[in-house]
Structure to design on (560 residues):
């Protein structure tokens, strides 16, 4: 492989001053140090410049610093012997190799290879990406598959899978094409000569349409975060149904297969086996394993599992499903959940109660009986969560600040960390703006949402320790991203009802590779809906029903 000048420059800047002991090439088994680069050696090929040790078997070779001029970036002595080295000889030394896979990962590899239709319910941090890529590399080598389509959250599809290939020496031969960007760029990437094609799940409908709405030329499908296909009525689910029909193999990956209850499991397993185990329709699935819960007239708002449903469903999918929990396989760092109470002033507390009353009365303004649904509960909850955070949107999306209590608590908490990096979660756009303003001296960086920065570079800067405050919406960094190298402190400025997002966000820092105890703080405004959300996520199940129950209880104070 020939590297371009820009690639050689990037490698040099990343590893400047790093010592390597190459396993191949001119300096095999000798320790060399990266000190610069050249646009071209005697053959015109861009190369890395390395400093040779005094004991080098090849010390008779070499160039003087004066011969290379500005190409020697590092501060080295005038008489140090230098020579050109190939990236490929150096980089393998910094890569992980197959022998370093954990036993449970080897088990996952074999599970994938032995089951053309399979699901891996692997807890966050267990390394499902490298497990899957290792299995895929074997299947490609055995000519069982030729083109693999990986469907993932946008940023994961653009960054995580490619980065993992670069981290492991046994995956280096895999050629990857990222289907993203403009329509023209996506078309080119979809038809590129590659082994693996990654695409954001929101582009899945486009991909199907591009290939005529029938067949795509990929014979193996990997669905990263299978739980994002839990809605059987969504367009992405319908597109996936068509795409997976023509694949010889399909692999589903998730750490949270039933984030809102067992009802979510049907659509995900249908993606894997076409309904062979849990039924061909959601109607039959509900009828066989659930009973109606809350309903109004003929409309059922939720379903409750029948007795033993969990065990029955587990048995039905056991043959193609491998499930693992991180705590059973990893020596995970200690995690500390801290709930920090934020006290509103008496005036602010009274304003919150009045705001709560106004919002509820407006819901029932027409005088008709109104059933609290998941949609109406979420709308009211969002309003109350905004107030608890200190600012609310009006109908015209204007922002009205009502309290500084939570912002002040956040500033105090960040200050108490004494410069340690912190990852801050927010719910609403105006919260991010207020946090940025309050912590301006620390030069906070925002990722995702309406952020203008390069997300990939931001994540790398964070992991390199260059960012002290990283502000993120849970949905922007909720899946697959490795941020554990950059810090061990999380602050939830705005808590969330979404248990899956909550767990996934925390797992950006509390995961394999984290070397320090993790501290997860929750800023909770006393006497507000914050307290109910925190209580729900502590229970770690059925948060949607808890949301509806919480709103019903609040409504009952004003509507009899």
């Amino acid at each position: 492989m020939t590297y371009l000048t820009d690639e050689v420059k990037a490698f040099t800047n990343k590893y400047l001053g790093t010592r390597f002991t190459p396993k191949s090439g001119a300096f095999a088994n000798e320790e060399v140090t990266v000190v610069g680069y050249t646009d071209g050696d005697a053959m015109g090929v861009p190369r890395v410049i390395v400093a040779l040790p005094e004991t080098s078997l090849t010390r008779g070779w070499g160039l003087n610093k004066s011969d290379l001029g500005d190409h020697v970036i590092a501060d080295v002595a005038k008489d140090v012997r230098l020579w050109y080295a190939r990236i490929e000889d150096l980089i393998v030394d910094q890569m992980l190799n197959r022998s370093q896979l954990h036993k449970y990962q080897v088990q996952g590899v074999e599970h994938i290879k032995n089951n053309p239709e399979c699901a891996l319910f692997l807890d966050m941090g267990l390394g499902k990406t490298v497990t899957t890529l290792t299995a895929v590399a074997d299947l490609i080598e055995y000519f069982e598959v030729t083109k693999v389509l990986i469907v993932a959250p946008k940023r994961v599809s653009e960054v995580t899978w490619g980065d993992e290939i670069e981290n492991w020496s046994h995956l280096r031969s895999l050629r990857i094409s990222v289907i993203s960007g403009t329509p023209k760029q996506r078309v080119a990437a979809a038809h590129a000569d590659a082994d693996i094609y990654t695409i954001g799940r929101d582009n899945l409908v486009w991909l199907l349409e591009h290939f005529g709405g029938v067949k795509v030329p990929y014979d193996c499908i990997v669905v990263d975060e299978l739980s994002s296909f839990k809605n059987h009525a969504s367009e992405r689910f319908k597109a996936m149904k068509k795409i997976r029909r023509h694949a010889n193999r399909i692999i589903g990956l998730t750490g949270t297969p039933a984030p809102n209850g067992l009802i979510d499991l049907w659509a995900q397993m249908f993606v894997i086996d076409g309904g062979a185990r849990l039924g061909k329709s959601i109607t039959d699935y509900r009828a066989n394993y659930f009973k109606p819960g809350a309903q109004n007239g003929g409309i059922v708002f939720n379903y409750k599992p029948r007795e033993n449903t969990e065990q029955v469903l587990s048995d039905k999918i056991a043959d193609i499903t491998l499930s693992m929990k991180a705590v059973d396989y990893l020596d995970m760092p200690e995690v500390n959940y801290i709930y920090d109470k934020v006290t509103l002033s008496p005036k602010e507390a009274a304003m919150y109660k009045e705001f709560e009353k106004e919002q509820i009365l407006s819901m029932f303004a027409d005088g008709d009986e109104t059933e609290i649904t998941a949609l109406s509960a979420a709308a009211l909850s969002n309003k109350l969560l905004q107030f608890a955070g200190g600012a609310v949107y009006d109908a015209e999306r204007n922002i009205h600040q009502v309290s500084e209590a939570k912002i002040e608590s956040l500033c105090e908490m960040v200050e108490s960390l004494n410069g340690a990096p912190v990852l801050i979660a927010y719910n609403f756009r105006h919260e991010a703006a207020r946090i940025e303003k309050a912590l301006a001296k620390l030069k906070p960086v925002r990722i995702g949402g309406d952020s203008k920065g390069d997300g990939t570079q931001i994540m790398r800067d964070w992991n390199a320790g260059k960012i002290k405050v990283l502000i993120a919406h849970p949905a922007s960094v909720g899946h697959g991203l490795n941020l554990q190298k950059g810090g061990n402190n999380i602050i939830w400025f705005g808590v969330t009802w979404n248990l899956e997002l909550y767990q996934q966000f925390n797992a950006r820092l509390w995961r394999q590779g984290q070397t320090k105890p993790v501290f997860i703080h929750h800023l909770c405004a006393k006497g507000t809906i914050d307290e109910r959300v925190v209580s729900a996520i502590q229970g770690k199940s059925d948060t949607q029903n808890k949301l509806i129950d919480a709103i019903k209880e609040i409504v009952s104070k004003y509507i009899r």
About this structure: The domain at 98-329 is CATH 3.40.50.10810 (Rossmann fold). The two ends are 74 Å apart (CA to CA).
